[in-house]
Please model this.
Amino acid sequence: MRLSSSARFPAFGLLLTLLLTMGCGGPAADTSADTPAGEAAPAAEGQADAAEAGGKIAVVVSTLDNPWFVVLAKTAMARAEELGYEATIFDSRNDTATEASHFENLLAGGYRAVLFNPTDADGSIANVRKAKAKDVPVFCIDREVNATDAATAQILSDSYSGCVALGQYFVEQVGEEGQYAELLGIVGDNNTWSRSKGFHSVIDRYEGLEMVAQESANFDRSQGLAKMESILQSHPEVDAVFCGNDAMAMGAYKAIASAGKADTIKVFGFDGAEDAVRSIAEGKIAATAMQFPKQMARQAAEFAHQYLSEGKRDFPQKIPVSVELVTPDNVDQYGDYGVAEE
Model:
């Protein structure tokens, strides 16, 4: 699926350490998430003229079924349009074959750069190399590919450190003894294992904490619901569940609430999705880790502009972006996929 529009998101003023240290980043974007996924909106006359002058930029995203990735993709598109390009979103539907088809089409269609959220760390490498062979720069966002000589730059959340913090908070809330389950994301995505390893680097120090189930729910809410329902049947005494993203956490919470155990089983997520942050404020979810999808997306668009319009080539290959622990104690500081004042 392709999506093209002139969507706008609310401005925000959070300064990312990365931007400060690199001296990158432009003015805060004047954007909103008003345009529904899949619905095209015409560009303003002045914007169309600028887009014609700047050319086309593709935003290839792993899925638009998850609101977090919708925000990521629309922000990248909006920032590219602000910088004078015609931007189009391609939805890979978490399928490497669909992603490969998108790359074939966009390379044949004269796109000048790709803002890329890969579907698979290994399976997506070939697509990036095809673009590089045609001198089309690729800037990875949030998810990486397992190659350091393919993408022009990779802007990535520090999932491991974020889950170390989540693990520490998990022990504070659950205690040093008890049973817990883990819902993993997509097995082929590096974020899945970075988050799991970060969490276990803390949890595994406590012999009294027993993992009774570990299953993949593919970062999907409905699968998180189904997996948690199954886990509750096999392990009704479970005390907590750690989920590799907020979509799975929200699905798991629904299963737990339906079983009448919302007050006894603690749910931990990762992403900082809007509904998860709201659920923390409502006492439903124990904690999450806030990524900053808007900042990563804007940075990728600005890197592409620097490459295409300013001739910049010396980008760092991997750029870690810090994440922040969100709990009931500080949840009022967060919202709209970032800090509250964004």
Observations:
- Confidence is low (pLDDT under 50) at residues 1-50.
- The chain has two domains: 56-155+293-320, 159-290.
- The first strand starts at residue 2 and ends at 3.
